[in-house]
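Translate sequence into structure tokens.
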Amino acid sequence: MKNNFISKIFRWLFIGLAITFGLGYAITLSEDLVNILLMNWTIIIVAELLVGLGLSIFIRRMSDSLAKILYLAYAALTGITFSVIFLAFELSSIIWVFLATAIIFGILGLVGKNIKIDLSGFGTFLLIALISMLFLTLINIFIANQTLDLTICFESLLIFMGYITFDINRIMKLGQLQQEEKYAIFWAFQLYLDIINIIIKLLKLFGKRK
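Result follows.
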């Protein structure tokens, strides 16, 4: 049962990433779609945030069907916003960053799966670090300090790498207790967010712009 649950998580994770990257790239092939995206940018961002918050906060109260719909909707909305990245960076650079992220995910996943120490307290540390990063990001909007921007980027990268280890560790411990489809989607969503954020930060640090 546990292995079946974990397989569901990674299946949903793959589906979400495939939708995001496939849709993001497809939009860049049409100038009309790009123009529509730019005209409705604020609406799309707000919708993405609302769907993401809904999944994070209310998924335990949802039916499996609603959880699936919202997860797929979030992946599609992220794909729409992700098209900006395909417009800004060389495709080869995006591919290399994606491969690097896959390697990082594999290594950290193995660590999270096999580590023997209790990581439950690690989640609080990561949350505090994430809040501090968001606070610094807000400050830097007003002061636009390049050094601080790089510091935030590196901090964010480390935080989401830590979250991969933490989330995989939690999945291995809770896999026998959370067999419903919506919980597989919940954990796929957590890993999806970790991966997307790592890709964005790696592109910002090492990506080759057009």
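Note: The mean pLDDT is 88.
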